[in-house]
Specification:
This protein has 351 residues and is of the alpha/beta class. The chain has a single domain, classed as Alpha/Beta hydrolase fold, catalytic domain (Rossmann fold), CATH 3.40.50.1820. The protein has a nine-stranded mixed β-sheet, sandwiched between helices. Helix 4 packs across helix 5 and helix 7 crosses helix 8. The longest helix is centred in the last third of the chain and has 17 residues. The relative contact order is 0.15.
Length: 351
């Protein structure tokens, strides 16, 4: 496999650029952006988010999946202060492109860290495979990226689904991981014990029928966010605009495949076996549990005890600890940015 890395600056459409600038500044989004997803047909967006602004230049690593050539997109941000010789890899969640790490990247860079921020295959600006996902393969892709960038050992900060990937990465390639920060990770329970198998056809129908308003409401309520709706509008915009792509069905199948990996490939049983220093940063209000709508009511009510599960798992690890942020939901780094960044930098610096 070639490890040649190509680099490109991606041009942003004016509305996307305004949305990103407003999001980073904490300002309300332009009126056109606030209303666009629900009014008529928004301007189509390619399934690799061509035309959607990222906060830093994007490069691509050639890979292969399902017999097809693929590209793994990533941002590679150098230390802004005195370099400390270390690199942090940020791993995103299922519903978000890697651009949502924008509030975290500069804090790490100022602290002396190089910051590498990939979109896993199937997400963001990366290619969208249509075959089944495995966390083992995603971990291998991440190692391939480290190899291409000549990074022997890194610290990992991972959110939501990225936390499941981070656990598998630490298990499969322990010599490549120095420490873990798991921000509101999912996978702290085995969802198979509560949720029955759901056929792809059901998931494709459910996800395909989701309107912008319903998706906005899903993010706000399922994730118990303390943010204003405008803060998540860029993600709603992405979801709505890719529907206009000629490859939308490919995007949809790829997205559904990621649910099947989350449901069918638990990592909770491996978490106590992770040897590296690990910090869970949890939102007290976060009771997100993938598949919960499909669970019988008597089982659904016991799902999503994420802060409680994190504390219990940390206590079983050789070097684990958990901290819970009160008044915060699933997007800890966006809801409590300053506290999150301070805690992460302090933890990394101590290891």
């Amino acid at each position: 496999m070639s490890t040649t890395v190509t680099r490109t600056m991606l041009e942003a459409r004016p509305l996307a650029a305004l949305c990103l600038a407003a999001m980073l500044a904490g300002l309300p989004l332009p009126a056109a952006a606030q209303g666009a997803p629900d009014q008529g047909s928004p301007e189509p967006l390619g399934i690799a988010l061509e035309g959607f602004a990222y906060p830093y230049p994007v490069a691509f690593l050639p890979l292969a999946r399902d017999g097809e050539a693929q590209r793994l997109a990533y941002m590679d941000v150098p230390a802004a202060g005195a370099p400390n010789g270390r690199t942090v890899v940020l791993l995103h969640g299922r519903n978000f492109p890697s651009s949502y790490w924008a509030p975290v990247i500069p804090a790490l860079a100022r602290a002396g860290y190089r910051v590498v921020v990939p979109d896993q295959l199937g997400f963001g600006k990366s290619s969208k495979p249509v075959g089944p996902y495995t966390f083992d393969r995603m971990a291998a892709d991440t190692v391939a990226l480290l190899d291409a960038l000549s990074l022997r050992r890194v610290d990992v900060v991972a959110h939501s689904m990225g936390g499941m990937l981070a656990v598998r990465l630490a298990r499969n390639a322990p010599d490549r991981v120095n420490s873990l920060v798991l921000e509101a990770p999912i996978g702290l329970e085995d969802y198979r014990f509560s949720v029955p198998p759901v056929p792809d056809a059901v998931l494709l129908q459910r996800e395909g029928d989701l309107t912008a308003a319903a998706y906005r409401r899903q993010l706000m309520t399922s994730y118990a966010l303390s943010l204003p709706e405008t803060a998540i509008e860029p993600f709603v915009e992405i979801r709505e605009r890719v529907k206009g792509s000629g490859e939308y069905r490919r995007w949809l199948q790829s997205f559904v495949n990621s649910y099947q990996a989350i449901w069918g490939q638990p990592v909770v049983h491996e978490i106590p076996l992770v040897q590296v220093p690990t910090l869970f940063l949890m939102g007290a209000n976060d009771h997100n549990a993938p598949g919960k709508p499909f669970a019988p009511p008597e089982l659904a009510k016991g799902m999503g005890r994420n802060a409680e599960n994190a504390r219990a798992l940390a206590a079983r690890m050789p070097n684990g600890q958990a901290e819970v942020f009160e008044g915060v939901g699933h997007l800890v780094h966006m809801e409590a940015t300053d506290r999150f960044n301070t805690r992460v930098v302090g933890f990394l610096d101590s290891h």
